[in-house]
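Researcher: Go.
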Amino acid sequence: MKIITDENRIQELLTRGVENIYPKREFLESKLKLGERLTLYTGYDPTASTLHIGHGITMLKLREFQELGHKVIMLIGDFTGMIGDPSDKGSARQKLTREQVLENCKMYQKQASTVLDFEGENPVEVRYNSEWFLKMNFADVLDLTSHFTVQRMLERDMFEKRIKEEKPIYVHEFLYPVMQGYDSVVMDVDGEIGGNDQTFNMLAGRTLMKDMKNKEKFVIAGKLLVDNNGKKMGKTEGNMIALNDAPEDVFGKVMSWTDSMIISGFEICTRIPMKDIEKIKKDLDGGVNPRDAKLKLAFEITKTFLGEEAAKQGQTHFEKVIQSKDKPDEIAELKPQSYNIIEVLVESGLCSGKSDARRAIEQGGVKVNDKKVSDFDFETKSEDVIQKGKRFFVKVK
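Model: Structure:
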C-alpha cells in the first residue's frame, strides 16, 4: 500500500478539528512525512442502537488517515460497552447486558460506511474487544491495574466533581480507562483518535503501551461539537443527530443550531476544504446572512453522513415545509385510541409523553388544521392535521 506524504494533506490532518496531539505534534508529523505506515483506531461503545454525529467526527479524521494509506481499525467496544465509559458523566452509567450491546451495534458498520471504506485496497478493519476481554482472568486484571495509581484516577475532573458533590464513584469506573488502554496493547497500534473528552482514556493507553511494549503511542484529541451552552452534542444531552435520523430531521436539526456553531460545524463535520471555510467565515464577518451559510452546512452534513440524495431530500423538505410553511406531500396517518389532543400527540410519537405534550401546547407549539391549540381537553376528529413545531405532522383517521 503506497503511503502518501503530501505536505498540505499532512498539515490539514494535523490541524483540522484537532485540539491536542500527544506526545507532541512533531512526533506524529515526522512519522507521516517519513512515509511510515501507521496503524490507528477509534473505539465505539454500543451504548445505543445508532451511531451519532459525534462518532462521525472521529470517522472523518480516520478517513483522512485511510486515504493517506494508513491502516485504520474500527473497534466495537462490545465488552467495554457493558461497563460504560464514565467520561464527562456526573453519575455512573447504567450497565448493559451482552445481548443489549450486541443488538445495539448491528448497524454500526453500515452507518459508518458512508464515511469509511470497508472495501478496496486499504479497507478499514472491524474488531470487537470481547475478543480479548472474555479470555482474561482475575490475575490478568490485577496485572493491568498495577500500572496505575488511585491518585491518577482521581485526577479526572468528573471524579473530582462527584467527590465534591458527595456522589458515589464505583470501582468498575476506575477500570474503564485501564481496559480502553489495553485495547491499544492487544491491537499493537501506533495511535488512537477520539474526542477531547476521551483524552484521559486514550492517555491510559499510552501508559500501557510504554510499560508493556516499550512503544510510544500517539493520541489525537479532537475538537468537540458543542451547543451554545458549551455542552457536547450527544445522546446524553438529548440533542444529538443520529446517523439513522431521516434526512429531513438531520437537515432541520442543523438549521436549528446557533450561528456560533456554523464555522466549527463546517470544520469538524464536513469535508469542505478549509480555504472554502475561511471564505465562509470572512463572509459571515462581513455581514452575510448566517442563514445562507447554515443552509450550506445542513446540506453538507446530511450529504456526508447520509448521502447526496438524502441531502437533496432534506433540503427540499426544509424549503417546502419550513421556509414556505407548506405541509409535506406525505403525512403519516394515525387512527388513535383516543381523540384527545394529548393522547394523539403521545400515541403518534410527536411527543414523548403527556408532560411533553402539555408543555408543547403551553408553549404554543401545537396546531390543528393550522390553528394553535391551547386547551388540554381539545378533541380532534377524523381528517384533522396535527402539527407539532415546524416539522412534525400527523393526520387523524
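Model: The two ends are 60 Å apart (CA to CA).
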